[in-house]
Q: What sequence folds into this?
């Protein structure tokens, strides 16, 4: 009976959706920013009070990038410790920050 209960628990855990991973930080201006990974290649990027859904390319364990909107800024995240080093680029403008994941 004990092994049956363990097997049932394993099935429940393996079929449950993964919890979202939240990474937060601030830009040099003091504006809050966050990235929430939802599973697969889906994420939500927030700056101040505005958020955008996007799909990233690359690997969460090394380097990934995404574009907020067509023709808009590109964000590149490089894995660093418990978070990422983030670079924002749009045309010849850029900014950098670090976010920590929880």
A:
């Amino acid at each position: 009976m004990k092994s049956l209960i363990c097997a049932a628990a394993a099935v429940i855990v393996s079929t449950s959706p993964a919890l979202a991973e939240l990474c937060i930080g601030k830009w040099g201006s003091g504006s809050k920013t966050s990235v929430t990974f939802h599973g697969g290649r889906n994420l939500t990027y927030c700056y101040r009070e505005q958020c955008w859904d996007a799909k990233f390319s690359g690997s969460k364990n090394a380097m990934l990038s995404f574009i907020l909107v067509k023709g808009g800024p590109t964000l590149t995240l490089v894995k660093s410790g418990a978070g990422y080093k983030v670079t924002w680029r749009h045309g010849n403008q850029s900014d950098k920050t670090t976010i920590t994941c929880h």
